[in-house]
Amino acid sequence: MTKTTVPQNEADCKTLIEALGRLDASEIVRMCGEMLINALMSAEADAICGVPYGVKDPDNRMNSRNGYRHKPLETTAGTLALDIPKLRKGSYFPEWFCERTKRSDAALWAAVAEIYVNGVSTRKVDKVIKTLGIEGISSSQVSRLSSVLDEEVAAFRDRRLEGPFPFLWLDATYLKCRLAGRVVSVALFVATCVDAEGKRLIAGLSLYPQETYEAWREFLSGLKDRGLSGVVLTISDAHEGLKKAIGEVFSNSSWQRCRTHLSRDICAHIPKAHKSEVGRILDRVFTQDDPGITRNAYHSAIDELARISEKAANILEEAEDDALAYLAHPRELWKKIQSNNSQERLNLDIKRRTRVVGAFPSEASVIRLVGSLLQEIDLDWQSRAYIAKTRIEEAIESAADDVGYDASIITYVVEPPGLEAAA
To answer: Under DSSP, is residue 167 helix (H, G, I), strand (E, B) or coil?
Structure first.
């Protein structure tokens, strides 16, 4: 895509008019929109600097330019290539630009700024501060920015959930946080689910000192109070406190033990020289496409593991019902519901985004940044189906007799062509 710039003189205008004459209407709209937005941002940056770009006026100049930050903006007219001016002191970001992206950027900025204001920055954070243009920031500025973000995140976390949600994934990840002058690990609980439309969403997130039964029960009860219901299958690792809480709060749902976490538990009792072999044995179990063959492969895997480690074989044998719970659902869903891998990928996104902060200055800053990031991800997920509606219907109907689930509360519509195949 050719970069569109504002004409500076008569010759530039003539060239631009000739170029526009060769384009269709949509491309003209895109180019004009790109020029207009870039011109507006340049004017705003000039206002901050006190004098127009390129003008030498040391008496009135309050700041100066320092290049551009290039960002694409998706519009109905096409992708606009925007040049956001960078400043030597402080930072500039247009209030109206790309709210979904701005939210997590602003939350990251606020977290790093809070570290800076509290005087606990490290060399690593100092580098980030310079990159973000944070210079001379005050605690009141951080407070104002944080209060706006906190309101948005609170509304996202407390929003009403309109069920049913047949599939629920649960997991916890740990982040560093400064509490009472000490840096400690805190557990971030995240729940994702699929609704009756087959779309994924972030159902909830909360921070706790540790991953305990009491914490998980409080978290799950909060989800249920907000409307999360109709859960047919819950997917998680085998944390005892989490299992107990699931059984009490969502007593009508089945539980799927994540195959990835099960493999890790087994490999903890396997000599290093045999781990790749064990991985192949377990893969043969979970890649079958027939329930009977899968169970036979599972029993064969127990026998093969017994020759390597009796302890590992016992773990696999005891986990059979929970590890193969996915077999009760449509075959097309097995890959998506037999593990917590989608949640693991979400955790990696969280880690990548929070790594730059290191140790968060407060619990509120953790929720602010992670909540802002998950808001963006949730919005992106809502644009497409994760599971076809017909598969959701089949899963609910197959579970109705076993768990007393009322499948009549959902109204299904004709599925768009190709969606089933995509699922």
So the answer is: strand
